[in-house]
Structures are given as structure tokens and as C-alpha cells.
Amino acid sequence: MQPTKQIKPTESELEILSVLWDKGAATVRAVHEVLTQSKEAGYTTTLKLMQIMHEKGLVTRNTDSKTHIYIPAVNKEQTQTQLVNKLINNVFAGSPADLVMQALGGHTTTTEELNKIEAFIATLKAAK
């Protein structure tokens, strides 16, 4: 069995992946339009990043038509898990509790979110 490939997207690549995860598939122009809603980005920069992501295996590209369609090649949940694990190990000395306390202490949390967290903790406790 092959080990799981480590996914190491940059911050800009994560922004693009986020758009592709939401849309499922998109052209460079469609991704660029979403990105420019929250930050200044040049079209050619978005194009180059997506070409690099294709070379890295982060996205696949359908070239059947004149306009290339990009599709995420990495799973959102797997990527999130790897990035969170790296964060826990590198920033919080391997302590998931420290990460959670930092996240909850530094942000406003709704009652609904707290209820979801409590339910998840209860599920984890029941599994032990």
C-alpha cells in the first residue's frame, strides 16, 4: 500500500482550491472572478498559479474545448486534515486541545456551533 501523498498547497493555491471545491469545476476566468471579489489579483497570475497547480497534481485539466476546465484533484477533507495535523504538530506542540482552546477563545462562537462541538465531543467520549 502506498503512503498518503502529502498535500502542500500554498495560501494562494488554497484560495483557488476553495473556489474549485465550491464549484466542482471551473475555468480560469470563473476562478479569477471569485478571487477578485475579496482581493486584487491579476488574471495572468491566476492562470499561472493554476498551471503550476496542474503540474503539482493539485488540479486536473480538461482540454477538450478551447476553454480549459480545471477540476480539483485533491479531496477537501483530506487536505484540511493534513493541514490541521501539521498546524497541531508545528504550532501547538501536538496538542489538539490547545488548538481548540485557541480557536474558541479567539473567535465569536454561536450557540449552534457550541452545540455541534459538544455533540461531537460526546460522540468521541462514547467511542472510547
From TrEMBL:
SUPFAM superfamilies associated with the record: Winged helix' DNA-binding domain
Keywords on record: DNA-binding, Transcription, Transcription regulation
InterPro entries found in the cross-reference section: BlaI_family, WH-like_DNA-bd_sf, WH_DNA-bd_sf
Keyword S-adenosyl-L-methionine: no
Pfam families tied to this protein: Penicillinase_R
UniProt family annotation: Belongs to the BlaI transcriptional regulatory family.
Record-given protein name: BlaI/MecI/CopY family transcriptional regulator
